[in-house]
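so my prof wants the structure for this chain in the tokens format not the other one, which i didnt know existed until like an hour ago. anyway here's the sequence
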Amino acid sequence: MGPKISTVEIVFITPLFLINDIIGIILILAGLDDIFILDIIRILPSQAYLWFKGVRGTYMMTANIIEIIPYVGALPAATVGWLATVWLDRHPESAVTKTVQTVARAIPASKGGKGIATPSAKPIASMPKNISAPTLQKTTLRDAKKAA
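here's what i got, hopefully its the right format
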């Protein structure tokens, strides 16, 4: 199977990341801060693009997280993350790609934490017993009045 990111996409998307990083560097050198505006403009479309292409976006998300850190975000991490994602997409059999995939598999996936609802097949203990599951049946106004 060939690379998922085409050459044309690389040619058009790479300058966008470069421009975004250059603007961030200029703002920091001028003593200003973009207050996450550049990050929001870049993170959402880049992650959505990689998701739609079916490319693992972990590498790009790591660069995006680095970009969010104040003053460290002035480094061109987004461009480096994009180029790393492209390189790993183009060289799936390389030793670097296999190492990155091994490390990614070794990190346990989150199973939900405090305040995060996780799907469960078990009934909730605190749920009242008299609630029944909704059914898909045709009801009329007369049936609804009888039930009330």
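also thought this was worth mentioning. The mean pLDDT is 77.
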